[in-house]
Amino acid sequence: MAKISDYVGTMYEQLLKSFMAHSSDGIVVVDLEGKVLDVNAAFETMHGWTKEEVLGTVLPMTPPHLLEEAGRLHELVLSGKSVNGYETFKMKKDGTMFHASVTISPVLDAEGGVIALVGVERDITGQKMAEKKLMDSEERYRQLVEFSPEPIMAITDYCIYYSNPAALHFIGGQHIDELQGKCVLDFIHPEHAAYLTFLLERSIGGKLPSDIVPIKLLRLDRQTIEAELKIVPIVTNGNTSVQLLFRDISKRKTAEQSLQETEMLYECLVENAMAGVYMYQDEKLVYVNPYLSKMFGYSRDEMMQTRLEAFIYAEDLATFKEIAVQTLEERISAFPFSIRGMKKDRSIVYLEGLVTLTKYKGKPSLLGTFQDVTYKNEVEEALRESALRYQRLIKFLPEPIVVSDAGMLIYANKSAMKLFRTTVESDLVGKSIYHFVHPEHQQEAMKIERDVMKTDNPSQFKEIRIICFDGEIIEAEISSIRIHHYMGKTVTLTVLRDITDRKQAEELMIRSEKLSIVGQLAAGLAHEIRNPLTSLKGFTQLLKSKSKEDSFYYDTMLTELERINLIVGDFMTLAKPQMSQFGYGSVSGMLEHVISVLNHQAILMNVSLISKVSTALPDIYCDENQLKQVFINLIKNAIEAMPRGGNVVIAADQINAETICIKIKDQGDGIPDAIVHKLGEPFLTTKTNGTGLGLMISYRIVEHHRGSLKICSKDKQGTTVKLLLPVPEGRPGREPAPDSADWAI
């Protein structure tokens, strides 16, 4: 007889297979290396892979920018936990992405160990799109009401609970509190109060909007204004509120009284306008002014009896009719266009027109104008040909370019203006190109121009230093070529490339290689020195105890041996891998702690530590002890750089969403230019008893925190250390542990 456990196991397997087969969610089972063990039909449909294609492979379902996130989830599930309803993006076989809700669970063996992972995916793209549409719809409605030029109020039980800015202005108020919470009847003229009450009750009872009705309102200054009102009931969650839509018509009567005068003025203006004016209705002209009929060589009567095809060029007739149709259907309004016309003598005339929708005798019609631009087109065509030559010049030189005539700049494209750090063309044009070349390279730049003017071949790219408009000096490379017939001259066209980043990358690579070599040397050297050093120290102490007369010499020897021991200790710190304890820490808290520790030493040296650290800094992902070591090294260096006393300013602020900037500025004598660029190298120091290893270790710690350290110094103006640290994008539950090979200090 079969065991009950076997029966239950078989039943469980059947249920699992049934669930895999009939689930509408995609299901994938992978081993601990991420290789697929099984997928269901829904997964095949969702991703486009067949089961035969994916078995035994690691699928590229995760977009590249989410690989780190997927790695964290993978580690979490491997620890025996489950991930439920995690929203992310997944990729299909064809490379497209879709929104997915993912649940990942571990498969455990009898001993509770994880042997595989099961992922359940649900395509929520439709849900996400619906949520976005709803959000967009609500935002459009809010903006429509808020920015509507028409006054709008919302009331409940005659009490005003909302009014848009137009309504507040309409009533003569300055602040929403002047309306909000007040009874709407307070702003209705007494002779219309009962009428409004009747309209409100009928609209609310019937849950239907009212007709547009005239009404008199009282402004806050108690002046009466004429208005039109429409009542719109709004039912939400069983409650009924009312929107009141107003329109100011107090000026309408004045406008109606002046309409006749306006029409007479308009007729006089149109009749004598220096542009052709016409009105088009029911596929025929119903009005033309004298200027238009003269333009086409017809009398007014002849033109109004002539069909449109007679004076619109045949190839442009369809365009004009399409514009007319779209305007009549109100799809476009006041649309400018250019077409060709045909005069009575069959000659061609180029026209620019504008057409708009109006009413004539109660029916829709088109009111338009024509202007003869034949001469202007001829001039523009000549200019266009000249511009095309210029465009060809730019088209094939997409990088920053300048054009110079005998060293004088006569053109710079936008990329060149950006390179020179200016947005004003006149900052460059009219100035000598050598004004922006570093004096060390001016002779070389002049030679390049002289050589280029002798041949049509471009020069080789040469590295020079450029002085930007803001005074910044950047590394660049240039290549020049001779251009003939540019505005009647033979000029030099120069292509520039900013290679500052490339140079910095090369310097960082050299620094990294130096650190690596020093670390390897330190690993062996420190060990070999420390063993005999211990013996020397011990025997010196022994000799000192036996020879009291020469204790001064033995004390000196012990002091120097201890100094050697400290240097070896720095070497060991640089060479020995130490596992970093990374977690979220407060930059402001760490700086406050370090300042409090060093404040006593600063007071003894007549130095004031001034803190300008922002208290609103976000936490960063770091090893607090290592960063404190960096801050102590840098602040201590600043204190020791001022033997005569002074101020050390420590500032920290968030300069953008991704970066925190810490600045430490002293008032010392500064560091020579020849040394500043080499700081961080072993045994390079300005201190009498220093080794340079502390700053070298600081550089390495900062690099391992994915930050950067820059030292700027000017003679007699002190030194500023600028430290940039990254802000994490979020606060996930578990950060991946740094690789010891990359993060060891």
Describe this structure in words.
- With 745 residues, the chain is an alpha+beta fold.
- It has six domains: 15-129, Beta-Lactamase; 148-250, Beta-Lactamase, CATH 3.30.450; 255-377, 2-Layer Sandwich (Beta-Lactamase); 397-498, PAS domain (Beta-Lactamase, 2-Layer Sandwich); 504-575, Helix Hairpins (Orthogonal Bundle); 583-743, Heat Shock Protein 90 (2-Layer Sandwich), CATH 3.30.565.
- A hairpin with a 5-residue loop joins strand 13 and strand 14 (348-360).
- Helix 15 (500-546) packs antiparallel against helix 16 (551-575) and helix 17 packs parallel to helix 18.
- It is extended.
- 20% of the residues are buried.
- Mean pLDDT is 79; it is low at 1-5 and 732-745.
How would you summarize this macromolecular structure in one to three sentences?
The chain has 745 residues and is α+β, with helices and mostly antiparallel strands. 40% of the residues lie in helices and 28% in strands. It is built from 21 helices and 27 strands.
Number of helices: 21
User: What percentage of the residues does DSSP assign to strands (E)?
Assistant: 25-35%
Class derived from helix and strand content: alpha+beta
Report low-confidence residues grouped into runs of 5 or more.
1-5, 732-745
Q: In terms of quaternary structure, what is this?
A: single chain
